[in-house]
Design goal:
The chain has 8 helices and 7 strands; from the N terminus they run H-E-E-H-E-H-H-E-H-E-H-E-E-H-H. By secondary structure, the protein is α+β, with helices and mostly antiparallel strands. The chain has one domain (about 35-220). Strand 1 and strand 2 form a beta hairpin. The N and C termini lie far apart (about 45 Å).
Amino acid sequence: MRRNGPPCPTPRPRLLALAMLLLAGCASAPPPVPGGPPVTRIAVIARGWHTDICLAYPDAGERVRALASGFDGARFLCFGFGERQFVMAREHGVLATLSALLPSRAALLMTVLNAPPEAAFGAREVVNLEVGEKGLDGLQAYLRASVQDTADGQAMRLGDGPYPGSVFFAATGTYDAFFTCNTWTAEGLRAAALPVDGNILLSGTLMRQARGLARQQAPALAR
């Protein structure tokens, strides 16, 4: 029987706070494919059992950028999904881990970076992918729709995240053993019109597909 692992914790990257202050130079965007449609770079991030989606602040769209109001120098926004009580708790016992596998409320962790994702998470944990205009529109809509609103239409902020530059929002939908953080990330890539297959539960499965897509895109970008 395949083990699903723990319920998508949002681990603290080593020296993330320092990394966000270093390498402040903006990552240069790749040139568009000659004669092809405009493309935008997004990133899939491996964080142990967990995965995030990142995109450059200018590419996030007005409604998603509004989530980062109050953060100075935002260059990249990263988003990850998880079981609300588990990801916001400081201690994770066996009972909390098991209960998180049952259908329960979810949270979205937004991490604001002023340096490229490679500086914060390590280049080996980052897979860059290209999406077209429609794919970017789809991803923007998916990210904003994943955030629960208050009665007056404002994003429901739950509190500060586990490290500087991060914040928790209430997420729409529920988390359970069959819809994990990695399922959420995979759905986001599908919203971006990327061909991600299957009901993905594990980060390793998702990252293998993401790396395969990156290899497929590389020849077109090289032309």
